[in-house]
Amino acid sequence: MSGSISASSSAASSGARQGTTTGLSGDFSTFLTLLTTQLRNQDPSQPMDANQLTQQLVQFATVEQQMNTNQTLERMLSLQQAGQMADAASLVGRDVSVAGNVLPLQNQAAQVNLPAAGQARTTRIEVQDNSGNLVRRTDVTLGPNATTWNWDGKDQRGSQRADGAYRVTISGRAADGTAATVDTTLTGRVTGVGREGTDLVLRMGRANIPFSQLRDLPQRP
């Protein structure tokens, strides 16, 4: 039985952005504290050099400006992400083709889109569960036109597997048996949209596919 598989995660990038903002805020506060302490405790008979004070004030202004710039960029990013979410929501209920190796099995059906024969003449398709166990293996001969391989969710022994997210590996072979590149996509139905960190993802059952991997949107009948 397959569990949920996510094609990507951006928690690290999100954490890095938050860390940068926190670091700037900390530098800003520390600098302000040092400056005010220095001014408060300076010797009136030997005040701070004007040039030195000017340099410190310039540094103060630079840090403040950078913090304001980051806050503005974050607001712009939030607005952009909200717009993307609204656009992606219109895909719910539609079949789309995506790149990647996460194959969504939905209602006991999954589809791999194969190209016409080129350098690659045959392909080997291997489906694995989220533990890395082989579920299904098949060889497909490519023809003069693009075609599809439809999986009914049955494993090598003919047992029905549960709907979920599976890993798929597709390797091409030339006429002489050597490895050849083969471009493929996977088709599934969008059941929802969401976010992983800052990345927008399309939910296809229990498979989470980055929006950036969207490749084709079939026309409505």
Summarize this structure briefly.
The protein is elongated and about 90 Å long. The strands form 3 sheets. A 5-stranded antiparallel sheet has the order 7-4-10-2-14, with no helix packed on it. The protein has a single domain (1-221), classed as Immunoglobulin-like (Sandwich), CATH 2.60.40.
The CATH architecture category equals Sandwich
Helix/strand structural class: alpha+beta
Q: What is the helix tally? A: 2
Low-confidence stretches: 8-17
Ends distance: 34 Å
How would a textbook summarize the main sheet? 5 strands, antiparallel
Kindly provide the name of the CATH class. Mainly Beta
Percentage of β-strand residues: 25-35%
Q: What is the radius of gyration?
A: 27 Å
CATH topology: Immunoglobulin-like
State the helical fraction.
25-40%
**Domain tally:** 1
Nearest-integer average pLDDT: 81
**Strand order across the largest sheet:** 7-4-10-2-14
Form type? elongated
Order of helices and strands: EHHEEEEEEEEEEEEE
Explain how this protein is built.
This protein has 221 residues and is an alpha+beta fold. The chain has a single domain, classed as Immunoglobulin-like (Sandwich). 32% of the residues lie in helices and 32% in strands.
Give the secondary structure arrangement, pairings included.
Elements: E1 5-6, H1 11-40, H2 50-89, E2 95-98, E3 102-105, E4 110-114, E5 122-128, E6 134-141, E7 147-151, E8 164-173, E9 179-180, E10 185-189, E11 192-196, E12 199-204, E13 207-210, E14 214-216
